[in-house]
Amino acid sequence: QQPVQSPQAVILREGEDAVINCSSSKALYSVHWYRQKHGEAPVFLMILLKGGEQKGHEKISASFNEKKQQSSLYLTASQLSYSGTYFCGTSRDNAGNMLTFGGGTRLMVKP
Amino acid sequence: GAVVSQHPSRVICKSGTSVKIECRSLDFQATTMFWYRQFPKQSLMLMATSNEGSKATYEQGVEKDKFLINHASLTLSTLTVTSAHPEDSSFYICSARVQGNSPLHFGNGTRLTVT
Questions:
Q1: pLDDT value of position A54
Q2: 3 state DSSP class of B33
């Protein structure tokens, strides 16, 4: 079953922050986050495993609340290069199989 | 590192013909490859999971006999769209990973147009 992402779209000014949420009605073993720019392949951002961990990379970080079956992606001090569609992917087993993606969140960062 | 090559990038075929799409991991061995279909401005819809040396696991609603997947080696998986119809026109994208819960590395996709 496909995870649900929110919001579907967001427009930011450069330097502003954003949060993208990903939730599932089923137990999650891991959550992946990817960014896809128009006409390009999705690019890996991070993976969070069961255990409620939070990972970060420069100004992009994410959390995983397994009790709530939710993950959030935090974009701080957004840059123009952050524009794209963000997808969360969730796996239905602890081997990371059957990875299904949410509907995506379109992020546009304006100067 | 971790480059996945997908070929062809674009293909136009006539209704009723078959089309083969290749997905290769260039600098790593991929135990698992995934095949997705993506409609314009929509998400990646998982079609099947392909493990090297074994039969692919198809998602519900995906016709096994229409979308033939072969994962003959640790660096190559192929998707063959058999007896293609216009409704099969779409963007097909593969991804590969080294092992469970490692990052997916995506190919650049194949735009299939069936006339």
A1: 65
A2: strand
Closest Cα of chain B to A49: distance in Å?
8
- Beta strand A9-13 pairing with A105-110: parallel
Strand partners, A61: A56, A74
Residues in a beta bridge with A8 = none
How sure is the predictor about A52, in pLDDT bands with cuts at 50, 70 and 90?
A: low
B102 and A47: CB-CB below 8 Å? yes
| pLDDT tens track for A19-50 | 999 999 888 888 999 999 988 889 999 889 87
pLDDT of residue A7: 97
Residues of chain B that touch chain A, judged by Cβ-Cβ distance less than 8 Å? 4, 32, 34, 36, 42-46, 49, 57, 59, 93, 95, 97, 100-109
